[in-house]
Amino acid sequence: MSAVEEKLAELGLTLPEVVPPLASYQPAVQSGVYVYTAGQLPMVEGKLPVTGKVGAEVTAEEAKELARTCALNALAAVKSVTGDLDRIARVVKVVGFVASAADFTGQPGVVNGASELLGEVLGDKGVHARSAVGVAVLPLDAPVEVEIQVELVQ
Question: Which residues does 17 contact at the CB level (< 8 Å), separation at least 6?
Fold first, then answer.
């Protein structure tokens, strides 16, 4: 077991199976020393635990937890390409999309769920640049979607 997966276990988390693509794309691709993930939905065992807009059907607190799940799914996608999460030198960028009710402006707090998970699991290697974007709708009516870019140890 890798050190990263041991840290996940300490946190009571396990790396899920890679979420199969919903369309014509790969969950993650490597280009040089970088791995880019596709947008990861908060799928748990093949389904969304919650659907709807944040600030309407979904609370900001629920959405923050869903963003953690997205980040965990993103790590699984990275591992599917690298074979070992210990190859991560650092998380470079996180982009979070939040399906938002018209008056919801708490997107950064929601995406903190993903950022905080990456920090807990990877320590200083999890510190990253980030965008948190409010959108009208996401695939399958998911409340949150997260993609990450990581740099690998050379």
Answer: 76
CB 110 within 8 Å of CB 64: yes
Per-residue DSSP letters for 54-123? BTTTB-HHHHHHHHHHHHHHHHHHHHHHHS-GGGEEEEEEEEEEEEB-TT---HHHHHHHHHHHHHHHHG
Q: Sign (positive/negative) of CA torsion 11, 17, 20, 21?
A: positive
Q: Which tokens hold the place of 106?
A: 């708490």
Main-chain phi, psi angles of 104, to 5 degrees: -85, 130
- Full-model pTM: 0.97
pLDDT digits (tens, 9 = 90+) for 112-129: 999 999 999 999 999 999
